[in-house]
Amino acid sequence: MKAYSATLIILALVAASTGACNQSVGPEACAPSFQLVFSARGPHTLQGLYTLDATGTGIKRLTPDSMTVSPRYSCSPDGQWILFAAFANQSSDIWKINRTTRLVTRVVADPAVDDSPEWLHDGSGFVFRSNRSGRYSIWMCDANGLNQRQIIPDTQYTSWPRSSPRLPMIAFSYAWRTIVVLDYQRNLQIPVTPDSLDPHSNFFAWSPSGDKLAFEVSRDLYVWDLISSLRRYWTDNNHIFNPIWSPDGQQIAFNAFDTLKVLNLSSRAVRPLMSGMAYAGRSSWSPDGSTIAVEALNPPWILLVAADGGSVKAVPVGENVAVHPQWINAVW
Predict the structure, then answer these.
(1) What gap in Å lies between CA 48 and CA 86, rounded to an integer?
(2) Residue 163 pairs with which residues in a beta bridge?
(3) What is the pLDDT of residues 119-153, one digit of tens each?
(4) DSSP state at residue 2
């Protein structure tokens, strides 16, 4: 387990990359086919979306400097588009940016607040949250923003939606307390958390197979799936939050107070990866399974943590505070 200390950070920043690669076939063969996207803001910059190379270098801003962008965004399944919400005149609309042209296009415009877009699993459209009916609920539309319709009644406050990466389903919570899965092709709501549980959280994550959800209830980590329903996998000494899945679906990483831990679902063994984090928020597991990117707000860096328990690399993002890191299977 690695301690999050000044010494570690200094060593991490000066350490050279040691990834094995056959340079004889050309440097392009050694370049990772994925990148990290994150949202950042600073005292002199508006909130925007940025990319970071897999090695922790080459920070670039994607969205225009003049736009104030919500930290919640979504990358299309083919890696060609990123959806995001941008604020203006006390409201927000939904935009998308193209990987090749960098063209930014508004796809949802309404006087109300529209935010938290999420691509559907096949890229044919997306869901988003809107208060245009008087209370936040979930809407759906085509990829070009047409055919907008409300798919969740606004009888209760709904959280931002999370789309399954493989199935026509989205997950959300009612009033931060009841997690529900919606099969939007059959218009069927499936309760995930029984009345005896009160997650009071929005920390839940789809598995890579798209048929399982990991979420926390206080000190307990649960996994729900379509076949065997609900199962408690781990009880920790500290409050658990932000579970994420490994790319192979065999492990779940989560934060427990100031420690990043990894649970093996087969053996139910838990190993700590890094401790002593002053504050760590959301995280994301790289497509090759090698690295977990963690947002650290104090100090405001992105931490690249080796999933095997090896090195920790701290990536400063200037004066900005970086949040919501997400690996994508594309290089922008």
Answers:
(1) 9
(2) 170
(3) 999 999 999 999 998 889 999 999 999 999 999 98
(4) E
Cis omega (within 30 of 0) for bond into 153: no
Distance CA(180)–CA(30), nearest Å, equals 42
How confident is the model over 54-91, as pLDDT tens digits? Answer: 989 999 999 999 899 998 999 999 999 999 999 876 77
3-class SS of residue 155: coil
**DSSP code, position 159:** -
Q: How far apart are CA 157 and CA 272, in angstroms?
A: 36
What global pTM score does this model have? 0.88
Q: Which residues are bridge partners to 202 per DSSP?
A: none
C-alpha 148/C-alpha 128 separation (Å) is: 10
Residue 240 forms beta bridges with which residues? Answer: 256
* Strand bridging mode 300-306 / 60-61: unpaired
Alpha-carbon radius of gyration of the chain? 20
